[in-house]
Amino acid sequence: MLKLPRTIRLDPSDTFVFERAAEPGEWAVSGAFVFWNRDPAALNQKQRVALRSGFLGIDSLGWSTLAIVTEASEAERQAMVEHLAGQLLEKFGAPDLEAARLAAEEEVAFAASLCDHAPQTLLGVQRSVEDGEIRERFRTLRPREAAAGAVSLHTHASAFTFHEVEGDDEPAEQVDLPGMIRTDSMTRDRG
Questions:
Q1: Could you report how far apart the first and last alpha carbons of the chain are, in Å?
Q2: What is the pLDDT of residues 149-190, one digit of tens each?
Q3: Counting Cβ atoms within 10 Å, is residue 105 exposed (0-12), middle (13-18) or buried (19+)?
Q4: How many CB atoms neighbour CB 58 within 10 A?
Q5: Distance CA 2, CA 178 (A)
Q6: Residue 137, SS3?
Q7: Smallest Cα–Cα separation from 10: which of 189, 186, 145, 180?
Q8: Closest among 114, 105, 102 to 188, alpha carbons compared
Q9: Contact 143, 150 (CB under 8 A)
Q10: Cα-Cα-Cα-Cα dihedral of 165, 74, 28, 167, to 10°?
Q11: Overall domain count for the chain
């Protein structure tokens, strides 16, 4: 079974901080390509937030602060590629469907590479522009073993009651999402 990211909404903040929030449960990609060849200084506040910390939902082309590692079939992966290819052709000016498919395959492969974690692991991204290039750092937030199956794409009320980050020394009862996200990270650069 493959693993791919889906958008998740733990609270309503995505609907306030992004121009368009992704719906919970959409297949997601990094979305950094949206900002290629764009001057960060020319972006409005909500676009800058998406640049800094958003995953792109491929159905709505909306943004999500977090994504969740989800098992997927090869048919779902292929449908994700085809749908993203269509979006790249229609909304982002890909020259033809073949070029759009190649780009979509690359984006989906990169998204899959972020999911080398147990299902239900939450992913966060932090982007910066350094020397004119977008640099992405990804972080993970893992559920406790006893509650690993309790996270749902559509339920969020209890999500903070059982999540912890590996290596976090704070008591489990205290929730500091920014602090939790900082502790387990990986940096992925694409050339």
A1: 28
A2: 555 554 444 444 333 344 334 333 333 444 444 345 555 555
A3: middle
A4: 26
A5: 29
A6: strand
A7: 180
A8: 114
A9: yes
A10: 10
A11: 1
